[in-house]
Write a structure and sequence with these properties.
heterodimer; A: mainly alpha; B: elongated; ion transport (chain A); K+/H+ antiporter subunit F (chain A); antiport (chain A); membrane (chain A)
């Protein structure tokens, strides 16, 4: 039962990544594209966690933790660059 | 006992993936940028929290490994998601139009220039009534 649920969840996350990619492609404003990239990072974390559960390997969580931190910092840096034209003022 | 744990883990997995999918669907479907911020920042973060809880329970019941990394990830995400949402909303409100005709003007105009001889808030010594001020007026 857990195996089926794991694969359904991985399919849902993959579909969510596709939807984010569509918004990244289309997004009329720059804010939409930043939101889409931020959501893609969060969905990638979810996919890494699911892969770790499917493989029964708990080493993947280091990668997920690092990706969470790097995704947050990159979103903030992108926003600061657009707002001020500079990242470290 | 094991059956109950399996049902709980499967339910958490489906709930989390469903919330992530709903968040991304809202990102595609909602009409304006400020509304599109709602889907990813709330639903997707909640869905990832449910997935990480399922992962903690899975490794505890199946392999007997107690891992706390997932709780660390979900704590970090719950802290940082409102901050990034706030920054993205500021970008949407203050963005200066640079050339692209198809892109609509920003609502609130460019961010305010610092007054007088002042510099950006990170350089400036805190005085009363400037952004770096910590005095509770």
């Amino acid at each position: 039962m857990i195996g089926i649920a794991l694969h359904i969840a991985a399919g849902c996350i993959a579909l969510a990544l596709l939807l984010n990619g569509w918004r990244l492609w289309r997004g009329p404003a720059l804010g939409d594209r930043i939101v889409a990239l931020d959501t893609m990072v969060i969905n990638a974390i979810a996919l890494i966690v699911l892969i770790g559960m499917i493989g029964g390997n708990d080493t993947y969580f280091e990668a997920a933790l690092l990706l969470a931190m790097v995704g947050f910092v990159s979103t903030i840096a992108y926003c600061k660059f657009i707002l001020r034209g500079d990242i470290v003022e | 006992m094991s059956v109950i744990a399996d049902v709980v883990i499967a339910a958490l997995l489906l709930l989390g993936a469903g919330f992530a999918l709903i968040g991304s669907w809202g990102l595609v479907r909602l009409p304006s940028t400020m509304e599109r911020l709602h889907g990813p920042t709330k639903a997707t973060t909640l869905g990832l929290g449910a997935l990480l809880l399922a992962s903690v329970a899975y490794f505890q019941t199946r392999l007997g490994i107690w891992t706390a990394h997932e709780l660390l990830i979900s704590l970090f995400l719950f802290i940082t998601a409102p901050i990034s949402a706030n920054m993205i909303a500021k970008v949407h409100l203050h963005r200066v139009r640079i050339g692209a005709i198809s892109e609509p003007d920003s609502i609130a105009g460019p961010p305010p220039r610092p007054d007088g001889e002042g510099d950006w808030a990170t350089f400036e010594a805190p005085r009363r009534d400037n952004p770096a001020s910590t005095a509770n007026s």
